[in-house]
Amino acid sequence: MFVEHEDFYRGGGHVYLQVHRAIIEPYEECWSNSDVINALGQRLGSDHPAFSMSGVELIDASLKASGLPGFEKAADQRWINFAKCFEDAHFLNGFGHPDGKFHFAADWSAISADNDLLPRLPDHAAITDEASEAKPFRLIAPPARRFLNTSFTEMPSSRVREVGPEVLIHPDACKRLGLSDGDRVRLGNDLGSVVLPVKIFDGLQRDVVVVEGIWPSEYFEEGLGINVLISADRPQPLGGGVFHDTSVWVKAG
Questions:
Q1: What is the pLDDT of residue 107?
Q2: In the chain, N or C terminus with fewer CB closer than 10 Å?
Q3: pTM, whole model, 2 decimals?
């Protein structure tokens, strides 16, 4: 939760919707997410009413549209408990189907049209970009320690501590490829390729490479960032990002 601005937040591992007021004054040019989005919407000429609403107004409208107390009352309560009663939480009153039964065989067609690869009964669905002879490594691109998201990549202090983009490769894979720390390598697939220095790291699987991000493209040697390798296609069955589902080849640069 962001203590400089009014906010509401659904955390993981509990059943409470947290609603709070700002605790401290925003520091210098610290903007809330809604302020940034509002400014963008207005500059782009959108007339949607949400782009003219404050954070409090957005929270208040969202809560009331959901049949919940408005912002002021919810903030006084500090949180709203969404826990189900014991009987519902333990399915003593049945499951969420008209017949109240647990269904092992799901009707995927009722959820998404992209269901041809999903098994009828619970099982593994082979829908990932698997490694192959041509692309023997699996690439993941998680945030670096000091880069929670791209907002942090614009902070000079964070960039100095992270130094620059690099690819983490297991020592055994480096030995097989004849690579040493600091060597330049090219990572690629059918979408494109990027050049990165090697950092030998034994905290991953031998057939996995890691490029911690999210560095802006200009920090890469050829001006092309890691997203060049990440597919923008809508994955089955319900879409989403595939930042950690990419197969690549690695060649000495």
A1: 80
A2: N
A3: 0.73
- What is the edge-to-edge ordering of all strands in the sheet holding 16-20? 7-10, 16-20, 79-81
| Look-up of token digits 């809330």 | 32
The CATH class of the 137-252 domain is: mainly beta
- DSSP 8-state secondary structure symbol assigned to residue 143: B
Decide: 85 and 25 in contact? Cβ < 8 Å: no
Q: Please tell me whether the peptide bond between 237 and the residue prior to it is cis, using omega within 30 degrees of 0.
A: yes
The amino acid occupying position 93 is N
Task: Tell me what the mean pLDDT of segment 164-187 comes to.
Answer: 96
Whether residue 208 contacts residue 137, with contact meaning beta carbons closer than 8 Å, is answered with yes
**Alpha helix stretches (DSSP H) within 66-115:** 71-77, 86-89
Rounded-to-integer distance, Cα 248 and Cα 140, Å: 10
Burial of 85 (0-12, 13-18, 19+ CB in 10 A): exposed
**At a CB cut-off of 8 Å and minimum separation 6, what does 18 contact?**
1, 8, 9, 10, 11, 78, 79
Are 76 and 89 spatial neighbours (Cβ–Cβ below 8 Å)? Answer: no
DSSP state of 117: T
**What does the block give as tokens for 15?**
């059943």
Asked if 142 and 210 touch (Cβ cutoff 8 Å), the reply is: yes
- Residues 27-57: tens digit of each pLDDT: 888 888 899 999 999 999 999 999 999 999 9
Q: List residues bridging with 196 in a β-sheet.
A: 185
Q: Where are the domains of the chain?
A: 7-81, 137-252
Which is nearest to 211 in space by CA: 222, 223, 195?
195
